[in-house]
Structures are given as C-alpha cells and as structure tokens.
Amino acid sequence: MKKEKFDYTNATVRLWLLAKQTGDLLKMCTERLFSEYDITTENYDVLVTVKYLGDRVNIVEIASWLRRSPNSISMLVDRMVKAGLVRRIRDKRDRRVVYVSITGKGEHILELANPGCWEVIKAILSPLSYEERRTFLSLFDAINRQALQYLNPGEDIQEMMKKRENLHAELMKRLPPYAWMTASEPEHKGGKKKL
Amino acid sequence: MKKEKFDYTNATVRLWLLAKQTGDLLKMCTERLFSEYDITTENYDVLVTVKYLGDRVNIVEIASWLRRSPNSISMLVDRMVKAGLVRRIRDKRDRRVVYVSITGKGEHILELANPGCWEVIKAILSPLSYEERRTFLSLFDAINRQALQYLNPGEDIQEMMKKRENLHAELMKRLPPYAWMTASEPEHKGGKKKL
User: At residue A124, does pLDDT exceed 90?
Assistant: First the structure.
C-alpha cells in the first residue's frame, strides 16, 4: 500500500467522520445552556425557525429547514405544544393547512436563551478569521450540494440551494439586533489565533 | 448597521447552521443504503466501532468515539442485541466490566454494507481535492478543539484530541483493504471540479 494513498484515504475517512459528528458536538455545547430554560437544542431550533423564518411556517417547511423528517418534527411539535412553547393554527381559507406559531412563553424563553446561544457560537468559532469562515462555508457548500444531488436525483439542486439561501436571508433580516451589536468586529478578522 | 459587520455575522450564522446540520444530511445519504440491510446509520456506526476500533470496546468507549451519551448508546446496543447484531460479554476477570462484540450476523451485514458506504463517502466528497480535504480537516479540528474546551473546562484538550487520533489510527489499521483499493488516486487530487 502506497504511503500517498494511505494519507489520502486517511484524510477522507477522518473528514467524513468529522463532518458527520461535529454537529452533535456543537449541539452538546448549546444543550447545557438551553437546559437552564428547560428546553432542548431541538426545541430551540424549532422556536428560532417558527419565530424568524417567517410568520406562517408549516411542519414540512420546518422539517426541510432543519434537515429533519416531517414525521420527527411533527412529533417534536406535539411535545412543544404540550409544553406551551408553540401552537398549531389551522388556516382560515384552507382548513387542511396547519401552521405552527410561537406562544408568549416560547417567545419569552427564546429572548432569554438567544444572547447565551450567540455567546456560545462566537466562542466556538472564535479561532476562525473571516477568510477562514468563508473557506469553511464554501467547503460545506460543496459537500452539501453533492449530498442533495445524491438524495434528490434529477432535481434542480442549484434552485434548491438558492431557495435555502433566500430563507437564510429572511432569517437574517428578522434576527434580533444584539446579534449584530455583539459580533466581533470584522476589522479584527475575528481571529484570536491562527490555525 | 455596517455592511461589513452584516457580512461577518451572516457568514458566522450560516457557518454555525451548516456545521450543525451537515452531519444530518450526510446521515440521510447512508440511511437509504443501510435500510437495504435492515439497519440504521446508527447501527452501522456501532458495528464499525465494535469491529474496527478494538477487540474489546465497552459502552463508554463506543459513546465517546461516536460523540453520544453512554445512556443512548446503551439503549441502542440493547436493541442491536435483540436484532442479533452484537452481544454483551462480561469480562472474566472483572465481572463488573461488560464489553460489546460483533456477532456473525453483524459481521456479515457489515461486509455487505461497507463497499456501498465507501462509494457514498467517495461520491459526496468527490468535489474536494486532497488539499481542500486537508484544509477542511484543520478547520474542523479548530472548532472541535474549541467545543471540547467549552464542554470540558480545565481538562487537557490536546491530550484528548491526541487520544482520539490514536483511536483513529487504530481504526485505519483495521479497515478492510477495499477502502484503499477503491480510493481515488491521489495523483488526480480527487477533485472532479474546483470550488
């Protein structure tokens, strides 16, 4: 076995494992914070989606945004309805359509948890400069594109990613202002140390 | 709000979401393949860990390697014992210690699923050159280090990551040879297209 080939396979396997597992590690980081407010990271993600992605989002839209199955989101929303965090609202014009909206309690918890969550995000990403963040993003985009192509053969992936980009822009417009106010200054490139 | 600051926060939020959600997307890609063998991606990950990480791994080691809680791995292993994929073995010298080992059925399924899984990994990572894979890895390493520091204040993170690296080397030694034989040649840099 050639050394080069070994290095290549080694890097490939490590990359796959890290790409697959880093999300779980990041979820653990916020879990501790959210448990103070009696919610899970999953609950928080649904609250953020319902509150900032649009006024009227349904189960399928929440599932698609969070990269989860509609079935698992539906069960999650059921539990969140019981906990008083969100409610299901039937559309007046089309009774078959059901939207999910945030309750006063959900909104209150979101307001309490948001600043801490933003602090965690900043702390975990702090070693990365703005340029490194951009590189990281384009690498993620490349494998996300491939994964979407694999999962949706024959579909217009460009269009799919464009749609998601628009949703992200929508979310950014609605995010509360402390996110901007407390962000590290781009002048410093956000990098505390180099890789 | 300054444009630069917006771009910076925008990139940060997108990066956090992608880092958190890409793993779920990758799991969806292998889920379809594994369902042909009546196993989930979780089952496959445990089979790989039990078979290739070492001869005698316990629940805590499996959980740590897969970045999961020992409790959730314990329940998963219970279900896999019922499905005949793994067995629990009590240590002869210390009856309190329980190891998990793979059964003949588990091994057979692993052999069937491995080549297809490797094809998925190659396909999803195909747009990335060797250099890009290395960059991706070092970016992942940087945020993993931060996350581990956040989750384990006061502990020696360098040592923790070194230990994981050794486990990875162990896994690479035991991986079946088709992984090497079918890997893209490093001569081609593995890149079908540039970012």
Answer: yes
